[in-house]
Specification:
- By secondary structure, the chain is α+β, with helices and mostly antiparallel strands.
- The protein contains 12 helices and 11 strands.
- It has helices at residues 12-26, 68-74, 131-138, 154-169, 175-197, 205-220, 229-236, 240-249, 254-270, 280-286, 292-303, 307-314, and strands at residues 2-6, 31-34, 42-49, 52-59, 62-66, 79-87, 90-94, 97-101, 106-109, 114-117, 122-130.
- The strands form 2 sheets. It has a 6-stranded antiparallel β-sheet with strand order 1-3-4-11-6-9.
- Helix 4 (154-169) packs antiparallel against helix 5 (175-197), helix 6 packs across helix 7 (229-236) and helix 7 (229-236) crosses helix 8.
């Protein structure tokens, strides 16, 4: 990992102010309050592997608060942080849940009001990743934010070991290997969270399984222009009303989720060289849109530009040529 900032490089009177500014830029704008008025020390190291942004923070006792105001400043709503405690003891609170993490424990923090803090020196590895990577497999993050995923779990131990080795080797990885390993790391995180949730008193195990089957069916049939909430309910063997209730428990709407996933896949394919031979109309149809005009309208509503403009910009081709 490369060192982005160390208070050892600055005068004590300036170090905490500069530290706070660096945290604002690297992670998210937050309110920081050191436990002691003087003597704060901290080191911030960073590495990027595929879509993962990893930051290792070693710091004196401090309280970190994300408020509605600070959250509005960063605009990172499509990502979240997985925090792996490496040293010390960390307290966190979010979504009416509080927990304490010790070395080897993991916790997920989303882009909502939250508090993290410690009364001792700590070292934490933050892994910033796309929220859809977790929500697609596990449902709403409200199910597991600020939930301690203990080091005693087999999956958690594997996550900690894997990411410590990943940051050590990050500078030596090729782009292809970075993408492959980041995918493995995300799968390990998902598995460890799922293992932890299995220990919770289940509210509705059957309902969760049905919800997961529904998500998997959507992913497998996004290209089916006839896929809609009613057909999805029939495919997983429940009534439409029951399936809608299961999606509401995860803060989702069935139709909105189907269209969101179609648009996300279409956006990926618009910039993928492997789909460059397809016209926008063909690509739209393959992603489940019945007409190009319908696709273009929805795409522009979500991304602010037309599919053709999006393809040109992300391929680095001047729009006049496209």
């Amino acid at each position: 990992m490369r060192t982005l900032f160390s208070t050892a490089d600055y005068k004590p009177k300036d170090s905490f102010r500069l530290w706070r500014e660096t945290v604002f830029e690297r992670i998210v704008p937050v309110e920081l309050t050191p436990a002691a008025a003087h003597g704060f020390t901290g080191t911030l190291e960073a590495a990027e592997v595929g879509p993962l942004l990893m930051t290792r923070i070693t710091q004196s006792a401090v309280t970190t608060v994300a408020t509605p105001n600070t959250i509005r400043q960063h605009g990172k709503y499509e990502t979240l942080n997985v925090a792996i405690t490496l040293k010390g003891r960390v307290f966190c609170a979010q979504d009416d849940r509080t927990a304490i993490q010790h070395p080897g424990d993991i916790v997920v923090m989303d882009r909502r009001p939250a508090t993290m803090g410690s009364d001792v020196d700590t070292q934490t590895l933050f892994v910033e990743l796309p929220r859809q990577c977790l929500e697609r497999a596990l449902g709403s993050t409200r199910r597991f934010t600020a939930l301690t995923i203990g080091a005693d779990q087999v999956g958690t131990s594997m996550v900690t070991t894997f990411f410590q080795e990943l940051v050590r080797m990050a500078s030596r990885l090729t782009p292809d290997m970075s993408n492959r390993l980041s995918s493995i790391g995300i799968d390990l995180i998902v598995a460890s969270i799922a293992e932890r949730l299995a220990h919770e008193t289940p509210r509705n195990i059957q309902g969760i399984l049905i919800f997961q089957r529904a998500l998997a069916h959507i992913e497998a049939h996004l290209g089916d222009v006839n896929l809609d909430p009613a057909r999805l309910a029939a495919a997983v063997g429940v009534s439409l009303r029951h399936l809608q209730a299961l999606f509401r428990e995860q803060d989702r709407n069935i139709a909105d989720w189907i269209w969101r996933r179609r648009l996300e896949i279409a956006a990926q394919r618009l910039t993928d060289p492997g789909f460059a031979h397809l016209s926008v109309g063909e690509l739209a149809y393959n992603c489940g849109f019945s007409t190009q005009s319908h696709f273009s309208r929805r795409f522009k509503e979500s991304y602010g530009i037309s599919p053709s403009e999006y393809r040109c910009r992300n391929r680095g081709v001047p729009e006049i040529i496209c």
